[in-house]
Design a protein that fits this description.
alpha+beta, 4-stranded antiparallel β-sheet, SBP_5_CS, SBP_5, SBP_5_dom, signal, globular, about 30% helix
Amino acid sequence: MVKRIKLCLMLLSFVLFAAACDAGSNAAQEPTPKPQGSEPVKQAEKAASSKKPVLVASALSEAPALADAVKSGSLPSLDKRIPAKEDVMVEGIVEEIGKYGGEWRMPWKGPNDRWTIGKPTEEALFRFKADGSGVEPNVAKSYEVNADSTEFTIHLRKGMKWSDGVPFTADDVIFYWEHMLKKETFGKKIYDAYYSVDPVTGAKALAEVTKVDDYTFKVKHKYPSVLFLERVAIDNKWFFAPAHFQKTILPEFVGEAKALEIAKQWGFKDVQSFLVETGYYYWIYPQIPTLRAWHAKNDPNSDVFVMERNPYYWKVDEQGKQLPYIERINLKKIQDSNQSLLDSLAGNYDLNQFTFKDFTVLKENEKRGNYRVLQWTNTAWSSTGVQLNQTTEDPKYRTLFQDIRFREALSVAVDRKEISEIITSGLGKPQQASVPKGLVGYQEGWDKQWANFDAARANKLLDEIGLTKRDAQNFRQFSDGSNLALTFYTDTTTNSPFMELIKKYYEAVGLKTDLKIVDQGTLQDLKYANKVPAFPNTVNLVNVAYRPDELVPLRVLTPWLGHYGLYTQSGGKEGVKPEGDVAKILEAWDKVKAAKNAEEITKWSNEIIKLHQKNQWVIGYTGPTPSLTVVRNNLRNVPMDLVDIDEFRNLGHAHPAQFFFK
């Protein structure tokens, strides 16, 4: 089993690309808890190898509460609410056919914590398969791709409806494309997925999106776009919007003055922020129709934000029971992570997620809390690490951070064994940040690069750089006698224990180190202003061809690339122009985008990985650790194993509509 799933992960890219190019594709408590580590995904393998779920019931059925509403006349009958049998989506079940009812309790930190519930309830046009080996239709019913991957014909489900009962059709796709995405009404530029690249000149061409009929639309590229469906599944998961609602708020339809009036009625000070919320983060607003299994019921600023079952949801199980099984989701507003942990230990949540630092206490309290700790696989390059902004605004620090000897010094100055034991409870082995074995881009021996603790080597490298002057406290100074201090920014106190250890080791070789904790919004602003010189962070992605942002400077995102990303994002109008190996990364990415086949994509993706191995812009100290998901024992159909990664939408990859209480 283990060998088979490892092989599956190693062939992840090949299988994905083959699927994309297929013209006919449719696609008991222990005294000392022992970690499982990042073992392969047995449950994912089982799901991937099983047959596609099919409807075996002769008739469809619904939750008792909905049946009562139908009897009272307050809700249309089931056959008028969901697609016909041939178009309804049959969702696979992890353990067994579920029972209706119950309230799923989870914590969140309020409206700014949108993705906590956004990912689990998300319904994308296409979603990744259980093992990540390609995409499958979701909101879409099926698709066809021509031989050179320039034309994609996408079919929708006849009879599907929004949560308010209005039909969902190709018009909702075309409206989104023409009036929202292309016009950037919700603050997002046109996603990279919709551009194809000339393999000769590198010129970009925007796709054409046209309606074929009420339930079919076509996306036509000028040049081959082998990964179009995968890119859409990541970049633009909802390639649609409720046109009937958006027409009531968009300035294009109601005028600027009316749009501002509406925005203020909703509690927004301006139209722009209002449209971002209602066009991008729409799922937390009860006024906005959705295709999700649950829809918002009350004000997201409430102490408990409630999402209730969508009576028009378009998925059923194999027995024909309309999903979701669970009646509602209750999100309790909390102030900090400690409250979340204590409430989970007391059994006050049905599902919650944690990092490796809480592993021991969670395992020790499993029986008392009546829950189980699931260890899901993640694809991080390391569990602890640091990044230095290669474009940081101070020229002295920029020169220092761009010196590969300095990065090596920071790497060998630290005893990874201590970091492993104290910070990860031994779950993350001492190693360098690198692509995990079994994933695309793995390089033999990379995990050992600069990984041995060698303070003498670190001091020698720092002296070679010219950092030989010391202040009264014996901290190193720049060659001109000015003070040198490494300032790390973070938006969470979770990193504090790790940074305290890092600080000890850095300062032992003469590098004064500080940590500043700011809120998430402030950190984002500082990133855009190029004022985050260093950050305790690592890389987490399954495949650079799926999501390049952490490895390729395409936008302001991860700290190591700094304003290189702004330069690309602004088309050279702002930021810092990439040079040297960073420029080579962008050249390789252009070739990935312009690739005509899977082999070319793999070749140039690996070039990007090799440049990261050579430069080690992301320094890691311990290997990847499992993602911890704490689940009450009566909440069932939650996968034992899962690839917990943003590209696959984390908890959403478990398909929560089929969760139930037993």
